[in-house]
Design brief:
By secondary structure, the chain is mainly α. It has 2 domains: 269 residues, Up-down Bundle (Rhopdopsin 7-helix transmembrane proteins); 45 residues. Helix content is 81%, strand content 0%. α2 packs parallel to α5 and α3 packs parallel to α7. It is a multi-pass membrane protein. One of its GO terms (biological process) is cellular response to fatty acid.
């Protein structure tokens, strides 16, 4: 059984994440699309992928909310359990891999500014993103293997719990894969990210022509990004190691998973403060959306009409 109180806490965190994360990530998605149309950079591809992975998680979060409201009892169609689990957990590792890609891009642009600027191509970032998706989905597909490879337990056929209780035979398959995920999808990205940001900070501190204010801002940004990486993903991945050692899925895993879930609300905030141009585009997107909403509320019949009718409606608003 899940720990006492986990239903209510999960319901609260999932709901807050969905309510805050969905509009923020939709705004970020809009901003990245606009930015890509003007000038597409490798960092934009990586950050757009980060936004897409968050939106995938948020799209299936209502299933988690419903499950939590039913005290983690699975009453939905059976096929949704492994499908939602695959996309939910894959999006978590897509985030760690994308954040690692961003750290590499920032380090290379700082360490080798001229060579990297002339040699970088968005196509390379697209290839990296494709590799991220393959790595995340191939590892998380163990959910399907575990879900259907055994019989006679409450995770197969006539589900009562979704991906929560396992037989010894299932654990023999699941726990080694989780340990591999800890090493390949967390430790390796964490090590690369730590190296890139440590070198980034060392290089920027040594630049004499950069003002102290800009140095502090850049160092604060990468420090906040790395801290966000540690806080949101370390506890959840440590549960893989503990589970492997204890030969069971830790009961407290449900709590640390909430930190990784809430990450979907943090990412857009980091994007916003990472670039002044991104802030400007976000404001442009908000202004455009607000203007369309105003026209829709005041003149709901104008959209199918000719452009001159739109102009007339706008003039009426001014009057």
């Amino acid at each position: 059984m899940p720990p006492i109180g986990s239903y209510q806490l999960s319901l609260a965190v999932y709901t807050v994440t969905f309510v805050t994360g969905l509009p923020l990530n939709l705004l970020a998605f809009c901003a990245f699309v606009v930015k890509a149309r003007r000038r597409l950079l490798p960092a934009d591809v990586l950050l757009l992928n980060l936004t897409v992975s968050d939106l995938v998680l948020l799209a299936f979060l209502p299933i988690r909310i419903t499950e939590a409201s039913w005290e983690m009892k699975w009453k939905m169609p059976d096929f949704l359990c492994p499908l939602s689990g695959l996309l939910f957990f894959s999006s978590i590792y897509l985030t760690t891999l994308s954040l690692t890609g961003v750290s590499v891009d920032r380090y290379l642009s700082m360490a080798f500014p001229l060579r990297y600027k002339t040699g970088r191509r968005p196509a390379y970032a697209v290839a990296a993103v494709a590799l991220f998706w393959v790595a995340a989905f191939s590892h998380c597909s163990v959910i399907y293997v575990v879900q259907y490879q055994a019989k006679g337990n409450d995770t197969v056929g006539n589900l009562t719990r979704c991906y929560a209780t396992f037989t010894d035979h299932q654990l023999a398959v699941l726990l080694p894969v989780r340990l591999e995920m800890f090493l390949v999808l967390f430790c390796l990205p964490l090590g690369i990210t730590a190296f890139c940001y440590a070198r980034f900070i060392a290089i920027i501190r040594s630049l004499p022509l950069v003002s102290p204010g800009r140095k502090r801002r850049a160092i604060g940004l990468v420090a906040a990004t790395f801290l966000h990486f540690l806080v949101c993903f370390t506890p959840f991945n440590i549960s893989h190691v503990v589970g492997f050692v204890e030969n069971k899925s830790p009961e407290w895993r449900v709590y640390v998973l909430l930190l990784s879930t809430f990450n979907a609300s943090f990412d857009p905030i980091i994007f916003y403060f990472s670039s002044s141009s991104f802030q400007k585009i976000c404001l442009e997107c908000l202004q455009a959306a607000w203007e369309k909403l105003q026209l829709g509320w005041l003149c709901p019949g104008i959209w199918p009409e000719a452009p001159e009718n739109v102009a007339m409606a706008e003039s009426q608003m001014v009057q």
